[in-house]
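User: I'm putting together a teaching handout on how multi-component assemblies are represented. Below are the sequence lines for each component of a complex, exactly as they appear in our records. Could you produce the 3D structure of the whole assembly as structure tokens, so the students can see both representations side by side? Please keep the chain order the same as the input.
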Amino acid sequence: MRSRQTIEFVNKPRIIATGTIAGPKECAGVVGKYVDKALLDDKFGESTYEKAECKMLTFAISQTIENAALQEKDVDMLVSGDLLNQIISASFAARDFDVPFLGVYSACSTMSEGMAIAAAFINAGYAKRVVAATGSHFSSAERQYRYPLELGNTRPPQAQWTVTGAGGALIADTGSDIAITHATFGKVVDFGITDVNNMGAAMAPAARDTIIRHLKDTGRTPDDYDLIITGDLGALGSRILKDLTWEKGVDIQKNHVDCGEIIYNVIEKEFQGGSGAGCSAVVVNSYIFEQLKRRKLRRVLFAATGALLSTVSSGQGESIPCICHAVAIENV
Amino acid sequence: MRSRQTIEFVNKPRIIATGTIAGPKECAGVVGKYVDKALLDDKFGESTYEKAECKMLTFAISQTIENAALQEKDVDMLVSGDLLNQIISASFAARDFDVPFLGVYSACSTMSEGMAIAAAFINAGYAKRVVAATGSHFSSAERQYRYPLELGNTRPPQAQWTVTGAGGALIADTGSDIAITHATFGKVVDFGITDVNNMGAAMAPAARDTIIRHLKDTGRTPDDYDLIITGDLGALGSRILKDLTWEKGVDIQKNHVDCGEIIYNVIEKEFQGGSGAGCSAVVVNSYIFEQLKRRKLRRVLFAATGALLSTVSSGQGESIPCICHAVAIENV
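Assistant: Of course. Below is the structure of the complete assembly, with chains in the same order as your input.
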């Protein structure tokens, strides 16, 4: 058995600020009163959805730096990625900042992957202040991964709704009492799911793998966490995860919640809830971070999952490999 | 001025082995006698070019581990990415290994980005053995980024030819006398080039930025390096880089060479030479690594560049943002 998927950050890198923005549909829900900017227009004044997505991500990065009372020149590195082909939202957002840029991709687990890398760099003393950020947009994701919106395709009941929003976190060597204490890097897990509308079922096994590995590596139990929060499994995927971990003798029923399941108020066309890299980026960096600041939450395991497919891999008959990267965020 | 783009790895992580594979056209050139496997069939027995690309990358990772006389279970992490949408070659290759996977994307600078992250993790003691790998395939890149091959489009003289090949490096805390001593992480640089057939011109300013930053941060001069090797600027891009650095008072004329410029024997349809993430992955991990082992090269600055565009960004009128990540590889 591999024993070192989990890194303990002895220097306890801190999350000193976050910055978030979300679309109108998202802001009708729980995150509405916590985000820095609630969009009324999901095109954000741009001519295309892709440009709107990039502008949201740029905003989230800027706002994160501003909320930390810092300036661009104080930031040593930007770690970002997104769902668009060639992570153009992140790359074009990074163009606006005079900061070294590390492009990452792990689909909807980009937020936790980015936080993990940022914390790893801070902990090692390679950098003092790193911004990790990501986002997504319903309309750009739909037309890239599925169908043009104009087609008005029917959505199956297991489908989720890509979140329009972006979020960032500024991780530093000092400056707050909220720390990233551990990162657990996931392995690719593929249970053979081929239904591209059933991401929750595809990703749940990856979440189980990383969460259980994290608990074993740290000697902790689910009860050691106030919350074990996944990124965008959705309602169905969250239920599958609870069952899958329970089968392995780990009971997370009481304290597991999924960002996708809680982000929308009204269960309507979004069916199983929210998805996309922006889903956990918005929820964790607004609502959850606020609860941590208020000490209503003391210790959270943030385990975002990603479905590593493309339209080409699906078109060539492949199943959906998934991954989950987790970070432990704690009041210290 | 930012002062800390460059990390010095005091523990000197070692490259203990590499693994490479390349297509028939590539193996007619300088890398032919150094790669572990020279393909006769660029489909590698697969039904699609994308599957062939993934199989090459999987081979490169396996071969790297084998060449290090190690087994999969000895590897703590895989850092990989590629040019295909949603980095499916890397993700699907990672599925075959029971190893934590860090997905990265910086287009054709993925090899140096991966080596830099791997070295950073080893140097900090987070891992003992990490594989960094990437690859590309002419035919999958053509149909994703440009036109279907069946169209038989004419190529302009400034065009390059995407390398069919993959390479990996195993970076460890000990085990050889070839070390990664520094990493310089690049910023996104955009000089407003919009011609997607002129990547060399688009990427050269990013290479200049990172190379000059590296020299300043380390207090070194070009003469301190036997070779300053870029990834896939091509013949024209390489000339532009020499001019651009010279303008800034840094003369790299004598010791700069580009992997894309040297990979092909015959200047024919590939015009400016090779490109793609696989270009530097193959050249550096075969030919260059061999020269380092034989001590014909003692100190190399490997500065691969990436063009961070997509067909969507170009279609929406955007220019081409570029990046360059550099690692110093030395006999110690």
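A couple of points students might notice: Chain B touches chain A through 58 residues (CB under 8 Å). Chain B has ten helices and 14 strands.
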